[in-house]
Amino acid sequence: MTESAGEPKGLLRVTAPADVGDRILADIINQLRRYCPKVSVDMVLMDRYVDLVAEGIDVAIRTGKLKDSTLIAKNVGIARWVPFASPDYLKSAPPLDSPQALRHHCCLQFTPLGRETWALNGKISAVIIPMSGQVMVNDVRVIHSMVLAGEGVALLPVYLCRSECVDGRLVRILPEWHAHADQIHIVYPRQRFMPPKLRVFVDLASQELRKWLEES
Questions:
Q1: Hey, which of 85, 135, 150, 210 has its CA 20 to 30 A from 162?
Q2: Where are the domains of the chain?
């Protein structure tokens, strides 16, 4: 009870998947350090499912469908994955006026979204596009770098590419279509007295994630 009523302080252990994005996670840590200088952060990025209680983790940022559990989950938005390419790539590439045209392009595949096909959803229909498997990578940061370098077309989360679209380094192609849509949650163990450090983190992280996840 004393800890739950006092000043935010102590070590806060956080886990998140790597594909949430470096800039978002850095912003969350910076905000926490600014408002709670007595809180230390240990953030561990991993793609496997983490048992928060068994591994001594205070809070997690999770994407996708949640498993049934006794944990408290706070929904903070949706991450939509859409096709992106660089202007340099598009200058010399075949026209991209329909999802089917992707068959004539170098598609850089983030493997968790599919190794054999891409599934794209429009306003009134959905299509499945066969993939060549020419480039397959399981790290979204590598795919993001390759798209910026003009190596091809890729499905990337909108929030990860917003600044590059503003400054003209990336273009959202096929704007009427999107692929995967991930729910984003902040998850933490149910407890009788919520420590101030956890309460502040949940509030700050929710605010930052919602800001990044807003559709442009």
A1: 135
A2: 2-78+182-213, 79-172
Residues 107 and 154 sit within 8 Å (Cβ to Cβ) = yes
Give me 135's structure tokens: 């480039």
With b for 16 or more beta-carbon neighbours within 10 A and e for fewer, the 54-70 pattern comes to eeebbbbbbbeeeeeee
CATH class, 79-172 region: alpha beta
CB-based burial of residue 82 (10 Å sphere; 0-12 exposed, 13-18 middle, 19+ buried)? buried
Query: What is the tens place of the pLDDT at every residue in 125-173?
Result: 899 999 988 899 988 889 999 999 999 999 999 988 988 999 999 999 9
CB 111 within 8 A of CB 117: no
How many residues make up the chain in this entry?
216
**Residue burial 146-158, b: 16+ Cβ < 10 Å; e: rest:** bbbebbbbbbbbb
Cβ atoms 176, 125 nearer than 8 A:
no
| Domain 2-78+182-213 belongs in CATH node 3.40.190.10 | yes
* φ/ψ bin of 133: left (φ > 0), alpha (ψ from -120 to 50), beta (otherwise): left
- The answer to whether 212 and 61 are in contact (CB under 8 A) is no
94 DSSP 8-state letter: P
195-212 residue pLDDT tens? 999 999 999 999 999 988
Query: Please, are residues 189 and 52 in contact by the beta-carbon 8 Å criterion?
Result: yes
